[in-house]
Amino acid sequence: MDYLEFERPIAELEGKIVELKKLAEEDPGMDIDNDVARLKERADQMVRDTYARLTPWQKVLVARHQNRPHFLDYAKVLFDEFTPLAGDRGFGEDQAIVAGLARFRGRAIAFIGQEKGNDTKTRIQHNFGSAMPEGYRKAVRIFELANRFGLPVLSFCDTAGAYPGVSAEERGQAEAIARSIEAGLSLKTPFISTIIGEGMSGGAIAIAAANKVYMLEHAIYSVISPEGCASILWRDAGKAQDAASALRITAQDLKELKIIDAIIPEPVGGAHREPLAAIKAASDQIAAGLSEMDGLSGEELLRQRRAKFLAMGRNL
């Protein structure tokens, strides 16, 4: 288990449990059951108490946890007949965005997911989840396929933002993101987006202009990262914790502001402690959202989606 800075007291308790078990292995005559049970109860309670009162900055750290399940972890559990499609038919392939066709609970769907990778090799392969313009043009291609064949679209956001390098700007990053947002808003099929980790900047909204937007309990969603905000407003990235609070980037804040539609509960201690439980909760919420949109015409889905985004910020 990789512990975050604020989890140090939990790490110490759970470390003691591990030490006791090692001692018992060396000396089978030791009776440690009561001690282990007592320490485990204390550790479990500490996890519950800690995660019940996370600050916005602590939620940022949880959303970025290296063991948190990423899109391909979700895809392995949620989808059958998983068929990624490569390339934007204009420049090349971008592996930060994985998109294609699959079946979700037996139903044909189109998917778009941002993948960060789980180790050094895959993180480099997927560019840490930061897409180039061809990634967003690939997303547009998927939106158009979904419209043509009447397929619901499921997207999964987990990115620190679109790739900000010179090469991306030279190939039209802003235009590609804008086209992707336009394609999402123009869909005449059900569209559900789930923020599974970080949903930062235009890199996330490019694939999240959906009928229903869900967030995992400890995910974050914002127009800019806390560090970026702090650098602009205070010229000091060290004030990221203040920015995280001011931006209102947590699922709880965004539900209150009516930016998102539902919060998906995570296991106690975060999705990184029990990935399968978090993925199952997301699956159930997505299935419920699709059921709610069954029977709606393409025009009604389009009208509802546009009304949803036009209403944002009007009554604050």
Q: Any key phrases for this structure?
A:
single chain; 316 residues; alpha/beta; 2-enoyl-CoA Hydratase, Chain A, domain 1; 14 helices; 8 strands; globular
- The portion of residues assigned to helices is 40-55%
Instruction: Assess the beta-strand content as a share of residues.
Output: 15-25%
Rg over CA atoms: 21 Å
**H/E topology pattern:** HHHHEEEHHEHHEHEEHHHEHH
What is the architecture of the largest domain at the second tier of CATH? Alpha-Beta Complex
Class per helix and strand makeup? alpha/beta
The rough form would be described as globular
Distance between the termini: 41 Å
Summed over residues and divided by their number, the pLDDT gives a mean of 94
Multimeric organization:
single chain
**Most strands sheet:** 8 strands, mixed
Number of helices, where a helix is a run of at least 4 consecutive DSSP H or I residues: 14
Number of structural units classed as domains: 2
CATH topology of the largest domain: 2-enoyl-CoA Hydratase, Chain A, domain 1
CATH superfamily of the largest domain: 2-enoyl-CoA Hydratase, Chain A, domain 1
Unreliable segments (pLDDT under 50, ≥5 consecutive)? none
What is the count of β-strands?
8
- CATH class assignment of the largest domain: Alpha Beta
